[in-house]
Amino acid sequence: MSNKNVMVVEDNEKNRKLIRVVLKAKGYNVIEATTGEEALSLLKEQIPDIILMDIQLPGIDGLTLIRQIKADAGKKDIPIIAVTAHAMKGDQQKILDTGCDAYMSKPIDTRELPLTIEKYLKK
Questions:
Q1: Which SMART domains has this protein been placed in (predicted)?
Q2: Domain-wise residue ranges, the chain
């Protein structure tokens, strides 16, 4: 079991709940944010071990938020996995180019998600 902190930045309650259930079953502590602004506020208080980032968020979008996190010297090394419905050709590379460590498309594969998280936590 893990005691790692995973921040989930996702505005859709059903997606957040699915991710929360999967991660808690694997022993992760889940920190939830529904907007980019809320995520930035939480990041002032605590540094997660990894971030799962939706790209389409109200207010500050995920790509802008990723750039802001990666520009912060104290947070730039936090692995970020984009979890998004963006599936157009070129979107994956565009997202990775912002500083994301990995990209997962929705709907979320509940078997693959913990494996991907574990992979980036071991780096």
A1: REC
A2: 5-116
**Average pLDDT of the residues in 38-65:** 96
Kindly state the tokens that stand for 84.
């998004």
Structure tokens at 35: 């907007």
pLDDT > 60? residue 1: no
CA distance 2 to 55: 26
Is the separation of the CB atoms in 62 and 37 below 8 Å?
no
Helix (H) or strand (E) run with residue 92 in it = helix 91-97
Residue 85: predicted pLDDT? 83
- Quick check: helix, strand or coil at residue 108? coil
Which helix (DSSP H) or strand (DSSP E) does residue 39 occupy?
helix 36-45
One-letter amino acid at 40 equals L
In this predicted structure, the answer to whether residue 86 has a pLDDT above a threshold of 80 is no
Supply the pLDDT for residue 60: 95
What's the number of CA atoms in the CB half-sphere (13 Å) around residue 40? 16
5-116, CATH topology level: Rossmann fold (3.40.50)
